[in-house]
Recover the amino acids of this structure.
């Protein structure tokens, strides 16, 4: 089965600083990849998705992610974080090619300090 | 649109009791799913449905039943609650099975089994 790994459990960033959250995938073919965000006490919300084509994808709330096949990575970035970005972030991939199941990583919790 | 709604928000059960977690969506989505979220484990798929009358097992189906008699509703039944089922449960829906990865999540139900 395909999977994603998020190596950072918790990251702390100062407000206004840049952010990069890591995601590595294990996938036999060209993967579909997704980032979701979960604000405290809420369900998850889709931030952005990659299917094919341009390896830099833009999402909501000013986030972007870059697909790098050579590194099996799909890292999430934001040039300048805001206090409202404090949340948990999940990378996800379809469990198997053509399968209708989504596998989530274990998440990275982002803390923003003033 | 209310989106995806879940009831109750909180529930405490004793071991051996049964209950049903309710999930409804008003977006006419084909695909619905149930996840549980546990610390350090991300989200794990319990059951999913690609349309009314069709359900299938996810990663951790044991101890849970589902049915999908209408497009709108996808209840999750705990047959005989166990402390290992203490978790936060999320219901999600997607427009179609082909777009199952674009999931809209409910706010969650926090379940404690004593």
């Amino acid at each position: 089965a395909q999977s994603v790994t998020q190596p950072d459990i918790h990251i702390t960033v100062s407000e206004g600083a840049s952010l990069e959250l890591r995601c590595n995938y294990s996938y036999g073919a060209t993967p579909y990849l997704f980032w979701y965000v979960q604000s405290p006490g809420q369900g998850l919300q889709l931030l952005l998705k990659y299917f094919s084509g341009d390896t830099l994808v833009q999402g909501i709330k000013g986030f972007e992610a870059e697909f790098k096949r050579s590194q099996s990575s799909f890292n999430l970035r934001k040039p300048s974080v805001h206090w409202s970005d404090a949340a948990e972030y999940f990378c996800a991939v379809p469990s198997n090619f053509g399968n209708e199941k989504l596998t989530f990583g274990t998440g990275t919790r982002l803390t923003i300090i003033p | 649109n209310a989106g995806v709604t879940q009831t109750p928000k909180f529930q405490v059960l004793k071991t051996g009791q049964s209950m049903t977690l309710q999930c409804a969506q008003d977006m006419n989505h084909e695909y619905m799913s149930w996840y549980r979220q546990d610390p350090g484990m991300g989200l794990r798929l319990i059951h999913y449905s690609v349309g009314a009358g069709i359900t299938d097992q996810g990663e951790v189906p044991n101890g849970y039943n589902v049915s999908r008699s209408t497009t709108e509703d996808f209840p999750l039944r705990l047959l005989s609650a166990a402390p290992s089922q203490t978790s936060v449960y999320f219901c999600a829906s997607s427009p179609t099975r082909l777009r199952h990865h674009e999931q809209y999540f409910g706010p969650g139900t926090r379940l404690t089994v004593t």
Remarks:
- The interface with chain B takes residues 9, 32, 34, 36, 41-46, 49, 90, 92, 94-95, 100-107 of chain A (CB under 8 Å).
- The radius of gyration of chain A is 14 Å.
- The mean pLDDT of chain A is 91.
